[in-house]
Amino acid sequence: MTRKLHLNAFLMGVGHHEAAWRHPRTEPARLTDVRHYQELARIAERGKLDSVFLADGVALHGNVRHNALGGLEPLTLLSALAAVTDHIGLIATVSTTYNEPFHVARKFASLDHISGGRAGWNIVTSAGEAEARNFGLERPAHADRYARATEFLEVTRKLWDSWEDDAIVGDRVGGHYADTGKIHAIEHAGEHFAVRGPLNTARSPQGHPLLVQAGSSEAGKEFAARHAEAVFTAQQTLAEGQEFYADLKRRLAAHGRRADELLVLPGISPIIGSTEREALRLEKELEDLIIPAYGLAQLSTMTGIELTEDALDRPLPDVSVETEGAQSRRKLVVDLARREGLTVRQLLGRLAGGRGHRVVAGTPEQIADQLQEWFLNEAADGFNIMPPILPGGLSDFVDYVVPELQVRGLFRYEYEARTLRGNYGLERPASRYAAPREVAVAR
Amino acid sequence: MTRKLHLNAFLMGVGHHEAAWRHPRTEPARLTDVRHYQELARIAERGKLDSVFLADGVALHGNVRHNALGGLEPLTLLSALAAVTDHIGLIATVSTTYNEPFHVARKFASLDHISGGRAGWNIVTSAGEAEARNFGLERPAHADRYARATEFLEVTRKLWDSWEDDAIVGDRVGGHYADTGKIHAIEHAGEHFAVRGPLNTARSPQGHPLLVQAGSSEAGKEFAARHAEAVFTAQQTLAEGQEFYADLKRRLAAHGRRADELLVLPGISPIIGSTEREALRLEKELEDLIIPAYGLAQLSTMTGIELTEDALDRPLPDVSVETEGAQSRRKLVVDLARREGLTVRQLLGRLAGGRGHRVVAGTPEQIADQLQEWFLNEAADGFNIMPPILPGGLSDFVDYVVPELQVRGLFRYEYEARTLRGNYGLERPASRYAAPREVAVAR
Ligand SMILES: Cc1cc2nc3c(=O)[nH]c(=O)nc-3n(C[C@H](O)[C@H](O)[C@H](O)COP(=O)(O)O)c2cc1C
Ligand SMILES: Cc1cc2nc3c(=O)[nH]c(=O)nc-3n(C[C@H](O)[C@H](O)[C@H](O)COP(=O)(O)O)c2cc1C
């Protein structure tokens, strides 16, 4: 089987561009309308994309005066999308810093049942300070967040394994519903969590949801190399992408994992036009709608320095790289400004489209060229597609870029499987509590 | 407007009878199949019922060897039901003892958006000890659980109010999305919680989900009288039902509330036959499928005394009434056994159908008589309908009992509203942060 691209539709309100809500091709009133997201999921499924992906935070991030914020919670939303789709994967972001593993394990098991095996979990550690304040806490240190994440994931995995695959007997006549020898208390007792188990939801179609990781700090990469099956990342240049890709794949071996057990999926925001001029016009339209005050506030949070309008036409001030927030994103932004000698205003323009993710404007062929280049040159196993405006940017991608990728033999014409793991080409994990089976020998 | 019944379909796996999974009219393999629940929701909506209601606990309760346990998580499930229905309310049980108010407020706001204003929250305090063990905790004392519940609800209400109704401006040309003067940090700092807010989901169609309470201890009733808009309760006799009803309605005044601001909804499990004989035969079929070991274990947990098979044909041993568990349910069970002089085996038979809720076998007319009697004699404003088997018991209720109630003028022919509050006849709460409006005076 030849290697194929994996593509997720990264959904964000009415588009990833921070001025999307002001563009005539969007309807910001649909931000809390489930039909908007159902339409997006159906478009993505029409394009045979692997999944729809929802980011999340547990605080109101950014200045809502100037952007369409305040949308829906991912897990409840994805259930409603499961109900109107059949094949597409459903990946929700849930933080390990402000949650309990029992609840998280159960909700993903439930979503996996509801979707027939299409659930995925983007495991994040919540870099923002505002989030801690909604839970009566101070934001834990970066290392502590990842330590908690590691134990958190261990507990959820045990819970998903707590019902073996064949635990349910279903003998109605004999009155024997389940084999309690195959439903296990997990008796987890660790530094952060003490959880007895078992889970009170039976083992789900995928066994475990697909496990995704999205932090690119040293701790984040180590976590990904040990545990994740896909990594979402922001990489600006091919060289950076290749370095990140090689780094992650190299780390896998140390944990006894094969290179194909982890997919590296950078984000990309494609600004699509039927001609290059049309694409550049759309890019310019969006740029003209940017409100500098909004981006300045975002950039201040990201870099940890207070930036005002006075700073706009000067270079980015010095920024320390050590931080307890999102380490990799801060580094990316500072590197970008330095490398290209950008003023703050120019930097804001570059960040407005994808918050640090790569933005590419062009024709469907040009977009396909970019994806192909990264894919064939070991910078990506696929991509998180971040349409600048929604639904238009997604339907343009599905209608014009996907066929181009299919013709080039880079992308599927039909889903290979009904589960997200199946379409990602990943195995279904066995329960750790199951007795090893005798291997049948073919004679 | 004449007073009308309110009816919820209390959904539980393949039926409320503990032997439902063994009955030929059920399919226990559908326990984790979303289509089973979607079918149930559609049946209930066809019958114009007010809502579907899902109970929940965060531990595997009961002996799964002998019962079909391990189903889906309510909030994820209800989102998937919202997607295939238009009018029916969606009430999920969520505990205040092992959750964080920010998450709970957000998920209900999200469900309320997704369903177009049909979300309800059954607020419980988790009486079981096993639940605490899944969160590294000892079960808090009864009074402490209710104290936490009170503050928890206060925080969620503030969060739901944190976006005023008219906070979203949506001025695309001017670049003004929301009026930040109408989105409020809640700055809650109490004994159990410190939450800054605002919520990161905009105010939902109902403002707050419908608030339901389901504990009938002294603390539970006080909580309900202060905060709840509906009370689910288990009452065995008309006299008990009347006493409970009068008690609750009386308490409302002390909190400045009108009697019609809280609906009292006892549970009832109707065993329906086209003749009385047929109903009794179904009851007997289910009784014959009971596994005493299962009920014994349940009763042991409920009463706090270890009961073995030896105890079956003797009266229930002495049970102390003070407990840190579910106070009102223990009292109900002990009273029932004493009042009717039941042996343990007989008591198990009585509990198998409805776990302490009233079970009534009969023709549609006889069932309607029972509902009418309680409704007209101030024992109920409506009922939680607990079909012994599902989906059959629910479709029988909808197809035969509902028309009988409609003909008698006791139940709606059409939904009055699109929201759950609307159908319950309850007001939409205003945001506490909104400036008082000038009242327009009609001239
Ligand atoms: C594509 C992508 C999506 C992300 N989505 C989220 C998100 O939804 N919520 C969140 O808290 N962090 C999100 N992150 C951030 C990281 O997961 C991580 O929490 C943060 O960057 C800190 O980790 P680091 O220091 O290892 O980079 C995302 C990152 C990437 C690359
Ligand atoms: C109809 C009904 C449904 C209930 N559903 C739940 C439930 O789903 N989960 C739960 O933990 N408790 C449930 N309860 C129990 C109570 O809400 C409460 O937690 C328990 O009875 C202890 O409160 P009490 O001591 O005030 O009775 C239910 C009670 C009734 C009457």
TrEMBL record, chains A, B:
InterPro entries: Diverse_substr_monoxygenases, Luciferase-like_dom, Luciferase-like_sf, NTA_MOA. It comes from the Bacteria. Residues 28-374 form the Luciferase-like domain. SUPFAM superfamilies: Bacterial luciferase-like. Signal peptide: none annotated. The keyword Cell wall biogenesis/degradation does not apply. Gene3D superfamilies: Luciferase-like domain. Pfam families: Bac_luciferase (PF00296). Keywords: Flavoprotein, FMN, Monooxygenase, Oxidoreductase. Belongs to the NtaA/SnaA/DszA monooxygenase family. NCBIfam families: FMN_nitrolo (TIGR03860). This is LLM class flavin-dependent oxidoreductase.
